[in-house]
Amino acid sequence: MTAERTGADDVDRTLALLWRARGGAAEPTRGRRPTLTIERIVAAAIAVADADGLAAASMHRVAKELGAGTMTLYTYVPGKAELVDLMVDDVLVERRLPGPGEPRPADWRAQVALYAERTREAYRTHSWLCEVSRVRPPLGPGQLAGQEYLLSIMDDLGLPPRQAVAAANGIGTYVDANAALGAENTRLERSTGQSTEAWWHQRSSFWENYFVVDAHPAMNRIWLGGGFDESAKGQGEAAFEFGLNRMLDGIQAQVG
């Protein structure tokens, strides 16, 4: 019973931190006047993760960046897991998706494209996002703004509630998965100093020495037909656009 209560307390405190702009989380009040804020802590943690990866954004490292003691950070944020939740949601807020009553593209497909573009940009800018599971997301303003935006698009199309949820979740999952792949590619290029194109070029001997045409006839035909002429980056972009557009075609057919 005690463990369950402690868990609930931790969740409530994290939610209060996520929604601090509404007055849900107060800064420490005991002792001297606080020299830090939650905003400064989260911003410093994001800067560390952007530069050196998520693992580097430890409580000790963030405290050092702020010129504070590690234990001081714990008076603001319970621990690393909660700090990561705050980092993720702050990055999602950066997408600045149009809220209720705010201007947005007139065409619904353009509205989805805006969501995809800004989400992928968030992953490109903060490549450590690909290291964070989105299965149990932080229930903060950034997460809910994304869900509200996609649901509002599907609702305006006239989809029944369950189909609206399925369509919005399908789009969100597809965009997040592809954005994570792009972020992983960015992270690999930074950590290895080698571009993806250079990586493939380094393995060009594979096609001469190990590729068996008879075992891969479809691949060979498509290769000879120019199917792989684009760069790896170009193929990735084409795959993303193709998949998203076919998904939207299906939704359009459902409402049409």
UniProtKB/TrEMBL annotation:
Entry annotated with the keyword tRNA processing: no
GO biological process: negative regulation of DNA-templated transcription
Span of domain HTH tetR-type: 35-95
Transmembrane segments: none
Xref: Gene3D superfamilies: Homeodomain-like (1.10.10.60), Tetracycline Repressor, domain 2 (1.10.357.10)
GO terms, molecular function: DNA-binding transcription factor activity; transcription cis-regulatory region binding
Name the UniProt record assigns to this protein: Transcriptional regulator, TetR family
Organism in which the protein naturally occurs: Amycolatopsis pretoriensis
